[in-house]
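I'm stuck. Protein, please.
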Amino acid sequence: MRQRKVKNEEEQLSRYPLYLVGQPIEKKGGWNQLFDNENEIFVEFGCGRGKFIMSLASQNPDKNYIGIEGSGSVILRALEKARQANLPNILFVKEYVKDPYDLFDNDEVAGVYLNFSDPWPKDRHAKRRLLHSRYLSGYRKILKQGATIAFKTDNKDLFHFAINEFNENHMRILECTEDLHATDLSAKEITTEYEDKFRQAGKTVNYCKVEI
């Protein structure tokens, strides 16, 4: 379901300077300075309203988290939650990312999360998928050696596409299932808003975790 545009969006976004990062491209290579520590950084591309990444930040105060979302009206909800939670280890970026390497430097990130990304179902739009090889190449640059990419989706076609792309790019599959919540994998413990809705509707969640 498409989020309706918020009235006076930019003005409302400006109310969250502690959590919304301006000019994010200029922060490349210096993200730890924004957190004022040297803790590992984990990034969710397409964080939506922030439930997933905020849960991670709350449970892991010794790690830093960055949620990236292109829609201002959607990320506004995440910013509202962040301020209420008063978490010191989370930041948000309003950006449609074309290449992860635009925002992060080599080995700057310890892990990437991709949850319920837009499947872009038409073949001619395949390069827009966050699981396409051109994005995987960018993740590989910014991720530290041995870091992981964790991926969830309700879309079977996108899931199979992603598995193929992982294999083509020689990424080692660590965990993989077409029904996450029927397993004992810890990835089912922290959910997104979409994930909760899909489970309530009786839909299964596909999940894969790979090492670069």
Remarks:
- The first strand starts at residue 41 and ends at 45.
- The two ends are 33 Å apart (CA to CA).
- The chain is about 30% helix and 20% strand.
